[in-house]
Design a protein that fits this description.
The protein has one domain: Jelly Rolls. The protein is globular, with a radius of gyration of 18 Å. Strand 4 and strand 5 form a beta hairpin. The chain is built from 3 helices and 8 strands. The chain is 12% helix and 38% strand. The strands form 2 sheets. The protein has a 4-stranded antiparallel β-sheet with strand order 1-8-3-6. By secondary structure, the chain is mainly beta.
Length: 190
Protein backbone atom coordinates (compact mmCIF):
# COMPACT_ATOMS: atom_id res chain seq x y z
CA UNK A 1 0.00 0.00 0.00
CA UNK A 2 1.41 3.37 -0.91
CA UNK A 3 0.91 6.48 1.11
CA UNK A 4 0.38 9.81 -0.46
CA UNK A 5 1.42 12.97 1.26
CA UNK A 6 -0.41 16.14 0.70
CA UNK A 7 1.76 19.19 0.75
CA UNK A 8 1.36 21.40 3.78
CA UNK A 9 0.04 24.74 2.58
CA UNK A 10 2.31 27.72 3.01
CA UNK A 11 1.40 30.36 5.59
CA UNK A 12 2.07 34.02 6.20
CA UNK A 13 3.97 36.14 3.72
CA UNK A 14 5.22 33.04 1.87
CA UNK A 15 1.64 32.05 1.03
CA UNK A 16 0.92 35.61 -0.06
CA UNK A 17 4.09 35.59 -2.18
CA UNK A 18 3.09 32.32 -3.88
CA UNK A 19 -0.31 33.83 -4.78
CA UNK A 20 1.37 36.85 -6.38
CA UNK A 21 4.37 35.26 -8.11
CA UNK A 22 2.63 35.87 -11.45
CA UNK A 23 3.26 39.62 -10.91
CA UNK A 24 7.01 39.08 -11.25
CA UNK A 25 8.84 39.51 -14.58
CA UNK A 26 9.06 36.35 -16.72
CA UNK A 27 12.84 36.11 -16.27
CA UNK A 28 12.54 36.24 -12.47
CA UNK A 29 9.80 33.58 -12.45
CA UNK A 30 11.96 31.34 -14.68
CA UNK A 31 14.96 31.73 -12.36
CA UNK A 32 12.75 30.92 -9.35
CA UNK A 33 11.53 27.76 -11.13
CA UNK A 34 15.13 26.71 -11.90
CA UNK A 35 16.16 27.24 -8.28
CA UNK A 36 18.60 30.06 -9.11
CA UNK A 37 16.47 32.41 -7.01
CA UNK A 38 14.33 31.81 -3.96
CA UNK A 39 11.86 33.66 -1.79
CA UNK A 40 13.01 34.42 1.74
CA UNK A 41 11.67 36.27 4.76
CA UNK A 42 12.72 39.91 4.84
CA UNK A 43 12.53 42.81 7.26
CA UNK A 44 13.74 46.14 5.91
CA UNK A 45 14.12 48.72 8.67
CA UNK A 46 14.92 52.37 9.21
CA UNK A 47 15.24 54.47 12.37
CA UNK A 48 14.71 58.25 12.37
CA UNK A 49 14.87 60.96 15.01
CA UNK A 50 11.54 62.79 15.26
CA UNK A 51 12.46 65.01 18.23
CA UNK A 52 10.68 68.36 18.04
CA UNK A 53 8.87 67.53 14.80
CA UNK A 54 5.31 66.76 13.76
CA UNK A 55 6.11 64.73 10.65
CA UNK A 56 8.74 62.40 9.28
CA UNK A 57 9.58 60.84 5.92
CA UNK A 58 10.84 57.46 7.10
CA UNK A 59 12.43 56.48 3.77
CA UNK A 60 14.42 59.08 1.83
CA UNK A 61 16.58 59.01 -1.27
CA UNK A 62 19.61 60.18 0.75
CA UNK A 63 19.43 57.27 3.26
CA UNK A 64 22.37 54.88 3.49
CA UNK A 65 22.73 51.45 5.05
CA UNK A 66 24.11 51.82 8.58
CA UNK A 67 23.86 48.95 11.08
CA UNK A 68 21.20 49.72 13.67
CA UNK A 69 19.85 52.67 11.64
CA UNK A 70 18.82 51.26 8.25
CA UNK A 71 19.30 48.22 6.05
CA UNK A 72 17.85 49.83 2.92
CA UNK A 73 19.58 52.50 0.82
CA UNK A 74 17.86 55.41 -0.88
CA UNK A 75 14.40 54.10 0.05
CA UNK A 76 14.61 51.53 -2.76
CA UNK A 77 15.22 47.83 -3.20
CA UNK A 78 18.47 46.79 -4.82
CA UNK A 79 18.53 45.89 -8.50
CA UNK A 80 17.06 42.43 -9.08
CA UNK A 81 15.13 42.43 -5.79
CA UNK A 82 11.37 42.11 -5.59
CA UNK A 83 9.62 42.35 -2.24
CA UNK A 84 6.12 41.36 -1.21
CA UNK A 85 5.19 43.79 1.56
CA UNK A 86 2.99 41.87 3.97
CA UNK A 87 3.13 44.07 7.07
CA UNK A 88 4.56 47.14 8.75
CA UNK A 89 5.86 47.52 12.29
CA UNK A 90 6.16 50.99 13.80
CA UNK A 91 7.86 51.42 17.16
CA UNK A 92 9.00 54.43 19.17
CA UNK A 93 11.51 55.04 21.92
CA UNK A 94 13.29 57.84 23.72
CA UNK A 95 17.04 58.23 24.19
CA UNK A 96 17.84 59.51 27.66
CA UNK A 97 20.31 62.26 28.54
CA UNK A 98 23.70 61.34 27.05
CA UNK A 99 22.29 58.33 25.16
CA UNK A 100 22.24 57.70 21.42
CA UNK A 101 19.80 55.92 19.14
CA UNK A 102 21.75 52.72 19.85
CA UNK A 103 20.61 52.90 23.50
CA UNK A 104 16.88 53.22 22.73
CA UNK A 105 14.45 50.50 23.82
CA UNK A 106 11.65 50.59 21.23
CA UNK A 107 8.01 49.84 22.08
CA UNK A 108 4.44 50.81 21.18
CA UNK A 109 4.00 54.31 19.77
CA UNK A 110 2.97 56.78 22.50
CA UNK A 111 -0.55 58.26 22.41
CA UNK A 112 0.41 61.61 20.88
CA UNK A 113 2.04 59.82 17.92
CA UNK A 114 -0.76 57.27 17.52
CA UNK A 115 -3.23 60.15 17.15
CA UNK A 116 -1.56 60.97 13.84
CA UNK A 117 -1.75 59.40 10.41
CA UNK A 118 0.46 57.78 7.78
CA UNK A 119 0.68 57.12 4.10
CA UNK A 120 2.56 54.41 2.27
CA UNK A 121 3.41 54.31 -1.42
CA UNK A 122 5.53 52.12 -3.67
CA UNK A 123 5.89 51.60 -7.42
CA UNK A 124 4.61 55.17 -7.89
CA UNK A 125 1.25 54.10 -6.39
CA UNK A 126 -0.38 54.96 -3.08
CA UNK A 127 -0.95 51.80 -1.06
CA UNK A 128 -2.33 53.37 2.13
CA UNK A 129 -3.45 57.00 2.29
CA UNK A 130 -4.19 58.94 5.47
CA UNK A 131 -4.69 55.93 7.74
CA UNK A 132 -4.58 56.35 11.51
CA UNK A 133 -1.35 55.48 13.32
CA UNK A 134 -3.65 53.82 15.87
CA UNK A 135 -3.40 50.75 13.60
CA UNK A 136 -0.01 50.16 15.25
CA UNK A 137 -1.45 50.08 18.79
CA UNK A 138 -1.07 46.42 19.66
CA UNK A 139 -1.54 46.82 23.42
CA UNK A 140 -3.59 43.90 24.73
CA UNK A 141 -3.36 42.00 21.44
CA UNK A 142 -1.64 38.70 20.73
CA UNK A 143 0.51 40.01 17.86
CA UNK A 144 4.03 41.39 17.51
CA UNK A 145 4.38 44.78 19.21
CA UNK A 146 3.52 47.65 16.86
CA UNK A 147 2.78 45.37 13.90
CA UNK A 148 0.08 45.93 11.31
CA UNK A 149 -0.56 43.20 8.72
CA UNK A 150 -1.76 44.45 5.36
CA UNK A 151 -5.09 42.99 4.28
CA UNK A 152 -3.89 43.32 0.69
CA UNK A 153 -0.11 42.73 0.49
CA UNK A 154 1.70 44.51 -2.33
CA UNK A 155 4.61 43.53 -4.56
CA UNK A 156 7.33 46.20 -4.56
CA UNK A 157 9.48 46.37 -7.69
CA UNK A 158 13.24 46.76 -7.83
CA UNK A 159 14.69 50.26 -7.87
CA UNK A 160 11.30 51.93 -7.23
CA UNK A 161 10.96 54.41 -4.37
CA UNK A 162 9.14 53.28 -1.24
CA UNK A 163 7.65 56.09 0.84
CA UNK A 164 6.37 55.89 4.40
CA UNK A 165 5.35 59.32 5.65
CA UNK A 166 4.06 60.00 9.17
CA UNK A 167 2.27 63.05 10.63
CA UNK A 168 0.97 63.81 14.14
CA UNK A 169 -0.44 66.83 15.96
CA UNK A 170 2.09 67.68 18.70
CA UNK A 171 5.85 68.16 18.70
CA UNK A 172 7.65 64.91 19.48
CA UNK A 173 9.51 64.93 22.78
CA UNK A 174 13.30 65.43 22.89
CA UNK A 175 15.25 62.26 22.11
CA UNK A 176 12.31 60.50 20.41
CA UNK A 177 13.04 58.00 17.64
CA UNK A 178 10.73 55.96 15.43
CA UNK A 179 11.66 52.59 13.92
CA UNK A 180 9.79 51.36 10.85
CA UNK A 181 10.12 47.74 9.75
CA UNK A 182 8.71 46.58 6.42
CA UNK A 183 8.09 42.83 6.62
CA UNK A 184 7.41 40.27 3.95
CA UNK A 185 9.13 38.04 1.40
CA UNK A 186 11.95 39.01 -0.94
CA UNK A 187 13.42 37.35 -4.04
CA UNK A 188 17.07 36.54 -3.43
CA UNK A 189 19.83 34.27 -4.75
CA UNK A 190 19.41 30.60 -3.88
Amino acid sequence: MTQSRSAVPSRGSRAQFERRVSQLPDETRARLAKGELQSADAAFYVVKSVAGSRSQKMLRDDDNKVVGISNISSGKLEKGSYFLLDGITLLAGVAGEGETVNDVNFGVLPDYLRNGQFELSANNTTIIDGASLELFNTSGQDVAVGHYTLDNPKMVDEQKAIELNLEWGADARPGTYIKAILRGSVVTKA
